[in-house]
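Entry 0007
Protein: Argonaute 4
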Amino acid sequence: MDSHNGKADDLPPPPPLNAGDEPLKAEEIKKPSKPKRDLVPRKGFGKKGQPIRLVTNHFKVSLKNTEEFFYHYYVNLKYEDDTPVDRKGAGRSVIEKLQQTYATELANKDFAYDGEKSLFTIGALPQVKNEFTVVVEDVSSGKTPANGSPGNDSPPGSDRKRARRPYNTKTYKVELSFAAKIPMSAIAHALRGQESEHTQEAIRVIDIILRQHSAKQGCLLVRQSFFHNNPSNFVELGGGVMGCRGFHSSFRATQSGLSLNIDVSTTMIVKPGPVVDFLINNQKVDFPQKIDWAKAKRTLKNLRIKISPSNAENKIVGLSDRPCRETMFTLKRRNGDNVDTEEISVYDHFVRNRGIELRYSADLPCINVGKPKRPSYFPIELCNLVSLQRYTKALSTLQRSSLVEKSRQKPQERMSVLSDVLQRSNYDSEPMLMACGISIAKSFTEVDGRVLQAPKLKAGNGEDIFTRNGRWNFNNKRLIRASSVEKWAVVNFSARCNVRDLVRDLIKCGGMKGIKVENPFDAFEENPSMRRAPAVRRVEDMFEQVKTKLPGAPKFLLCILAERKNSDVYGPWKKKCLAEFGIVTQCVAPTRVNDQYLTNVLLKINAKLGGLNSMLQVESTPAMPLVSKVPTMILGMDVSHGSPGQSDVPSIAAVVSSREWPLISKYRASVRSQSPKMEMIDSLFKPRGTDDDEGLIKECLLDFYTSSGKRKPEQIIIFRDGVSESQFNQVLNIELDQIIEACKFLDATWEPKFTLIVAQKNHHTKFFIPGDPNNVPPGTVVDNKICHPKNYDFYMCSHAGMIGTTRPTHYHILHDEIGFTPDDLQELVHSLSYVYQRSTTAISVVAPICYAHLAAAQVGQFIKFEEMSETSSSQGGHTSAGSVPVQELPRLHEKVKSSMFFC
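Output (C-alpha cells):
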C-alpha cells in the first residue's frame, strides 16, 4: 500500500482531477482560505525612451448594432438511421443546403457556422428546437458504386432503373437546439474596458463569421488562419511537402476599440498530383519499386484523391495487399434477364474493359477508396492527390529550415501583402457582418512607440562594452569573469576533424579573451569499428577509453560530433556527462573554424564552467530599481512538448532561477518530465510526507540562499513562457499558489513579494515604420492603443530583426506585489534581454525564459533515445493528458546541477 501511495505522490494528477485522498484534503483546506487572485489592472504608461511613430497590422473595426443578440444553437448531425455523422468536414455542405432548402422556415436568417457543433444567428430562429431533413449531393463518394467493382461499367441503357437513381446523394437529419443568447453590447463593453462574461463569446462569433467567409471561397481553414488554393502561394520543401502561405485573422479588443489583426501565416500541405510521385518524394527513393508500402499506407490514409478519367473525389482507406494485376474482384454484367459474373483482376478490367492504358500500375498495389470490408480498388496511376490537404507529420530539419527561409518577408513586402489581402477578401460583402453593422478599416492602425536606450555592459578589466543596434563584440576585450579550462580532454566522434589544430586555436583564442586553456590530457578518437553501432553503445565505448587512460575524472570534456544538428550521439553523451558523472561538456561540430566561431564556443564554455562573459553595468554598481535594494530572485518557467506527430512523448517542464544576488546574469536550471501536452507545470511543489519537498522551486530557493550569502529572496519575479490568455488564471492561481506553498514549506513565516509576467511570442501583432524598409529598432516598446483595454500588457522588440519582420514579444503582467512603475518594469525586461551569455546580441525575449527553453530541450534529449530503443507499444493508446505514467528524467549530478550546463 505504501509503495502505491509513493507512486501516486510521484505523479500528482493535473489540477482539475483529484485522485487519491491527499490532494482532496489539501483542496478542502485551501478552498475557503484562498480568495481567487484577479489579473492586475494597468498601472499607467511608460514615458522613457525616444518617441517613434509606428503602424501595426491591426485594422479598426466599427460596430453599429449593439442592441441585437446573437443566438447560439447546438448542431446535432445524424444520418438517416440516426447514427452520428463522423465524417469531418461534412457539416458545412449540410448546413449550406439546409439554409437553401428551408429558407422560409428559418425566417431567411444568415448563419455563422463553425463547421462543428456551433451555429449562430442574429436574433432567434422561429422555433426553440428545429429538426430538418437535408439531402446533399455527396461529393466525397463521387460516382463509385459500393459493390466492390472499380467504377460503373454497365453498357449504356442496360440498367435504366439504376442509372436514374443518383447514388451520390446522402440524407442527413439536422437538429438545432437553442444553447445561449449573447448580447452584442458585450463587444461595446469590452471596448470600454468592461469585459463581461459574454465578451469572449461575442468576439468568437464574429471570428466564426470571418472563417465562414473564407470557407465559402474554398479556403483551407486551420484554426484562425485561412489558405487559398493558389499555386503562387505554394513553396517546395522537399519530401512531397509544400509550404502554403495564407493569412491569420482574429478580432481583438484593444484600448482604441475593436481591431482585426491580420498577418501572414504558413501551413504545410501535401504536394498535389500523382500519388506515386508524392510517395517517391516522401520516401526519397528513385522509382516506385523501392517504395515501402507499409509506410505508404500510413502516410496516405484519409488523404483525398481525384480519380481519372471521371474526376470523382474520394478518400483513401487503404491499399490492396497484392499488386494490381493480382487483385481480383467479381464483375457483374447484365445479360438480358440474367446477371453474368466474372472474376477479373483490377488491372485487366481497366485495360481491357475500360480501354485505359496503364503504364506502371500492374506490379504496384491498388488504392482502396471503399470500405475495409467492401473494398473499391483503383490502379494507383489514375489517382491524384487533391490540393490543400494538410501535412501534419513532423518536418525534418532540412524541411524546417527551408520553410523558415522561404516564408521570410521584409517589413515592406509584408505590409503590401497584408493591404492586398484586405482589399481582396471583400469583407464588406459578407451578409452576416453587414447585419451586425460591422465594417473594417482598410488602413493600418497608427501607434506611438518609444525606443529605450540600450543598457550599458561591462567586460573584463573594467572596460565598457558599446552596443550598436542591439549587438556588440569582444574584439580586443576580455571576459568579465574568465574561468580556466583545466583537467580536460577531447573526444572525437567525427572522422573529419583535425583535433590538433582545433585545440591549438582554442588555446590561443582563449588567451586573448582571458580564459586560461591548459593543454588537454588527451584526445580520444572513436574506434572506426564503432561508427555503425547504436548511439548509446558508441558513448559507452568512448567513456571506457576515457576512464582507462585518464589519471582521474576530468573537469571538462570537449566533444566533437559529425553532424551539426540532430546527432544521435548528443542525447546519450549529455546524459552520461551531466547525469551520471557530473562533467561539464561542450559539443561542437565545426565546419568553418574562425575567430568568431571559437569565441562563440568559448562564451558557452566559460558560462558552463562558472564564469561570466559580460554583465550589466547596473549589476556591478547595484543600481537596479527595486531589484538591487532587497534580495530578489528571478525565475524563468517553460514547458516544451513533443512535436505535433508525437502524442505520447512526455512534456518537459523547466524552471531556471537567478543566483548570486545582486546579479541577474547567472542562472541554474531544474527540469522534470510530465504528462504529454500538459501546459501547467505539475512539479513546482511536491511534498513527500511532512518533511520533504521534491518540487522544482525548493531547489531554486536553496540554491539562491547558498549562492547569495545566506539570504532568502524577499522578492521573486517570475517570467512564464508559452501560456495563452485562457490559461492566465491557472498560472496566477494554481502555479503561483504552488510556488508560495514551496516557500512556506521551508519557512512558515516567510512571505516574499511576487511579480508574475507572462511572455508570448506566438501572436500575430507586428510593427512597421511608415515609409522605412527597415525593421523597428531594438528597444522599441508599445503599451498603448492596440494593447488590452484594461489588463497590464506591453509589446517589446528588444532585438535587432536581421531577417524577415521582427516579431515583438508580448508581455502580460498578471500580478505585481513588488510595485514596479511601468518604466522600471519595461527597463528590467529590456535589460534581461542583454544578459544572455551565449551570444553578443540582445535577444527577443528575456534570458531566463530562453534558458528554460534550452534546459528543457537538452535534458529532454536524455530520454529521447530510450523511448526509441524500447518498443513504443508500451506507451500505446494513452494520449489524454495526465492519464499515463511518465518516464522520469534522470536528475543532474551534484557537481553540475547549479552550473549553466544549458548554455
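Curator remark: Residues 847-869 form the longest helix (23 residues). Residues 1-32, 140-166, 865-882 have pLDDT under 50 and may be disordered.
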